């Protein structure tokens, strides 16, 4: 029979020793940012971040009013930056603050990378060759940057998005009822995967698609022994990675976009197994699919719930419509709107998009401190610690945005100029999201298609939903709705709008969106 008294005594001794050890680690340098103690000793901050995500950082900022603070979890330091000025200084000091270690840890854990694959990635990192370090992902960044790769992706995706939005047409019925959040997630994700991975996209198999959303739902657990913490999600991960592995073994990437083909070509040069490469593609899918649909959802909610916004944006977009001609004769059944006009000549639509990203995005840029650093001659940051720059702090700072900082103002960005570092919807500095140009193009296109063709409202007079951090995955940048709401989607009367079939055209020559966020 176990000696429970002895076991309990040993456990108590271990806890006391661990407490003393972590207290020694937490001895504070005189110029180090103030340490905020957790409500639960040792791991309280970790629990709060898992529950409230980026909004926990905002809560701490509002409570303690610190431009930068220190959170301690099991003795390790996490410096949380709330000041735009300090965030800008971190971004400029690229040698002292690097994002690669965290990116590699996240990618390998979520991808289920083998020991050989992890060692290879670590070798690339420790070589000190930044070009080699980023070579694996350079093809993705290049393919998603303004140029031929982005033009191809937009040209392929936009017709698919038009077809997706057309599925909402009620036909002979008065209106269609749809769980808009789930509907957008499922259909938009398939259009994106088809555009990137081609006709043999692994998500064609419903089993793989369903497994992906279960797998994605538990991403935080992959940082801590997932086979024990979330065994079902661990099995779902295997289904998704298996599917991508078989996709690569069959050479199905030959039917994919040039961005994916080039990425696969680069993977071959790094001596990774098919299995490891399949895991990297599963991780890429998370980045591609988890943010466009929620952003479109919140744009839709905030436009259709505000009569002034809906009217102004419709007028703005209607002025851009061009009739498509057939054999020299104009037809009113199909019209087109240029993507470039959505991005450069639609100030109210673009302001609404930027306000959506400001108020509903709460991602964070994470970096590792490579050397003891005195930042701005004021703050001492220790080597080996982590620096977190949460978007929620910059996006809700009343000194930057004014007294209505927590309200949705769809016209906020028409004349407002703010510091570039205050716009952190896509991260900042070396950790800028490579898919930001594609995401912006597709989000604006889908929103325009819906505004011009439909009237949308909650069913049975239900209230419009509000965002919730609790229902949002830690991996997502944009918050999810707090509850599922069924919407009535009704086609606009033809005497009000002659747009029966709408297309987005001119999917080329898209310039950088970075200037739109500065």
TrEMBL record:
Superkingdom in the source lineage: Eukaryota
Keywords assigned: Heme, Iron, Metal-binding, Signal
CDD domains membership: CYP7_CYP8-like (cd11040)
Pfam families for the chain: p450 (PF00067)
Record carries keyword Magnesium: no
Amino-acid positions noted as binding heme in the UniProt annotation, renumbered to this chain: 433
Iron among keywords: yes
Signal peptide: 1-18
Cofactors (names): heme
Single GO term (MF): heme binding
Family label: Belongs to the cytochrome P450 family.
Protein known as: Cytochrome P450
Taxonomic placement: Eukaryota, Fungi, Dikarya, Ascomycota, Pezizomycotina
């Amino acid at each position: 029979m176990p000696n429970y008294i002895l076991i309990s005594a040993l456990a108590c001794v271990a806890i006391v020793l661990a407490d003393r050890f972590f207290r020694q680690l937490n001895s504070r340098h005189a110029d180090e940012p103030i340490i905020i103690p957790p409500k639960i000793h040792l791991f309280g901050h970790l629990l709060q971040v898992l529950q409230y995500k980026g909004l926990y950082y905002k809560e701490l900022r509002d409570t303690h009013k610190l431009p930068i603070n220190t959170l301690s979890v099991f003795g390790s330091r996490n410096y949380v930056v709330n000041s735009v000025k300090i965030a800008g200084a971190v971004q400029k000091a690229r040698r002292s603050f690097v994002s690669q270690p965290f990116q590699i840890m996240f990618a390998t854990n979520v991808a289920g990378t083998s020991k050989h694959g992890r060692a290879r990635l670590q070798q690339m990192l420790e070589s000190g060759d930044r070009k080699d370090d980023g070579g694996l992902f350079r093809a993705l960044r290049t393919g998603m940057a303004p140029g031929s790769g982005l033009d191809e992706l937009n040209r392929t995706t936009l017709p698919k998005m038009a077809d997706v939005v057309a599925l909402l047409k009620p036909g002979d019925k008065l209106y269609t009822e749809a769980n808009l959040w789930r509907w957008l997630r499922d259909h938009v994700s398939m259009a994106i995967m088809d555009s990137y991975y081609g006709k043999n996209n692994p998500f064609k198999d419903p089993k793989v698609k369903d497994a992906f959303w279960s797998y994605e739902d538990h991403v935080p657990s992959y940082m801590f022994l997932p086979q024990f913490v979330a065994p079902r999600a661990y099995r779902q991960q295997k289904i998704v990675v298996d599917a991508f592995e078989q996709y690569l073994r069959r050479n199905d990437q030959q039917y994919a976009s040039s961005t994916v083909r080039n990425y696969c070509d680069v993977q071959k040069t790094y001596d990774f197994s098919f299995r490891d490469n399949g895991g990297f593609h599963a991780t890429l899918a998370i980045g591609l699919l988890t943010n466009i649909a929620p952003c479109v959802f919140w744009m839709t909610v905030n436009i259709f719930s505000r009569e002034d916004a809906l009217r102004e944006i419709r007028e703005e977009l209607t002025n851009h419509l061009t009739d498509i001609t057939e054999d020299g004769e104009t037809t009113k059944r199909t019209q087109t709107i240029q993507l470039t006009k959505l991005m450069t000549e639609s100030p109210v639509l673009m302001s609404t998009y930027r306000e959506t990203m400001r108020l509903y995005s709460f991602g964070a840029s994470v970096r590792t401190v490579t050397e003891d650093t005195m930042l701005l001659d004021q703050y001492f940051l220790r080597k080996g610690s982590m620096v977190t720059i949460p978007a929620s702090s910059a996006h809700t700072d009343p000194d930057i945005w004014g007294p209505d900082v927590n309200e949705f103002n769809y016209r906020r960005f028409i004349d407002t100029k703010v510091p570039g570092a205050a716009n952190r919807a896509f991260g900042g500095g070396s950790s800028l999201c490579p898919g930001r140009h594609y995401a912006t193009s597709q989000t604006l296109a889908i929103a325009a298609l819906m505004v011009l063709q439909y009237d949308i409202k909650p069913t049975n007079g239900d209230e419009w939903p509000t965002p919730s951090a609790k229902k949002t995955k830690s991996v997502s940048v944009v918050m999810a709705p707090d509850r599922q709401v069924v919407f009535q989607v009704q086609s606009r009367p033809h005497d009000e709008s002659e747009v029966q079939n709408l297309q987005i055209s001119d999917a080329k020559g898209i310039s950088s969106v970075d200037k739109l966020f500065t």
